[in-house]
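Weekly modeling sync, notes
Attendees: AB, CL, MP (scribe)

Item 1: holo prediction request
CL wants a bound-state model with zinc ion before deciding which constructs to order. AB pointed out that an apo prediction alone won't tell us much about the pocket. Agreed to run with the ligand included and paste results into these notes for async review.

Input as submitted:
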Amino acid sequence: MGTPMMEPAQAEDSQLVQETLAGNRMSFQLLVERYEGRLFSLARHYTRNPVDAEDIVQEAFLKAFRRLDSFDGRSSFYTWIYRIAVNTVLDVMKRRGRSPVQNVEDPELVGEARPVSCPAPDAGLHTQEVSEITHRVLEELPEIFRTVLVLREFEEQSYQAIADLLGISIGTVESRLFRARAKFKQKLLALYPEFGGA
Amino acid sequence: MEACNQQRALIPSYLDGELSEAQAAPLRKHLLACQDCRNQAQGEKSLKAWFRTEGPAEVPEGFAARIARRAFDGDTGEPVAPLPAQNEAPILRFVLAATSVAAAVLLILAITLRSSDLPSSDRLRADSDSPQQLEEVLRELDRVNAKAALEAERK
Ligand SMILES: [Zn+2]
């Protein structure tokens, strides 16, 4: 199975890519089945509408299909498709008038973020309710901040992975996260002052 | 105080699991000894608690098969349409209906015009009939329009 360096799943992915390029539709379907869950998981942090989420994931997979011959197997297929998915999400958000992730309101230029103490979600809240609140707050953040928070906190990507995905340095990831978290706390308390009780 | 500032700056990275053991060990030691920094760390943890995962995302039934079919059919999938697909059908139906009514109007007009050209005793009748017919066609057009608009709205 493939080179000794390759994980078995990675070797299987490469195989499926080759078969897809040779015209095997079923192989592409299997690739989609492998990663659709992770892409839907990403998309749902950007839209609460299931139809919109499906549009985004669909666009990402079709884009990947068209560029499949550019997949060189140096990174894992997952890394490759995930990057396409992140770019697709950000494209769609830009089309919808969200501020782009790069430039404007560059967080490096924004003044020192004031640390605000953050309340934990009330123990009585259900996961679903917490999630609604969190996404409502994220919706209010500039895209530049929402994206680092989604990638770090929900998607549990490492700083290095986030840096690679967004084409920024690790230091920038760190400082963006710092400011994004400060903004998140501010917006949370602005939208839900009842949580600031203590 | 200086030690606190230094250690505090590392707390987010520590909670993100991004510190090397060489950096994490002194921070842990400091946290055990310093209540203020422990509070700070607790605050950061509280923030993270808002990002609770909701479990696996739901994937629509038959999604992969649909995508594979569309990909091989040469569907480019771009861009995400601003109009939901369901709205296309009633609009298309409306356009078709409006077009066919317009064609009927033209046909009736043509017949009316031709008959009005005829030098016959029927001329008066033809004249009095045609506005009536036209009126009815226009009313029919209104009805079709209203129905299509209603359907489009309901979708
Ligand atoms: Zn301290």
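Recorded for review: The two ends of chain A are 59 Å apart (CA to CA).
Action items: CL to compare against the apo run; MP to circulate these notes.
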